[in-house]
Amino acid sequence: MKIKQHTPYKNITFCCRDCGTKISWVSALQGQGRCKSCSSKGKYPSKETRKKLSESSRGKNNGMYVDGRSCIKKHCVDCGKLLSRPDANRCTL
Ligand SMILES: [Zn+2]
Ligand SMILES: [Zn+2]
User: Fold this and answer.
1) How far is the CA of 41 from the centre of ligand 2 (A)?
2) Which residues have CB atoms below 5 A from the ion given as ligand 1?
């Protein structure tokens, strides 16, 4: 597959939808949205694993993990507040 050099996603952090490991935007947008180890497993972690992960990431990535493509950190250009929408530039549009 062809990958364009110029991409708006290159400065955005994407995380594996299963384990929260940082992955490339290519994996997030064109792949399964999972890291290599999770995509090679090809199955979802158990409920308990998910619970552990959500507990261990609490505080660090608080509230950023929503559906696997939402672990994107972008800050308001005016006040620096963390934005929930990756396509937004400011907390108030
Ligand atoms: Zn993973
Ligand atoms: Zn702001």
Assistant:
1) 40
2) 16, 18-19, 21, 35, 38
pTM above 0.85, yes or no: no
Ligand nearest to the CA of 19: 1
**pLDDT tens digits, 5-63:** 566 777 788 999 889 999 988 888 888 888 988 888 755 556 666 777 676 655 555 45
| C-alpha to C-alpha distance for 77 and 49, rounded to whole angstroms | 36
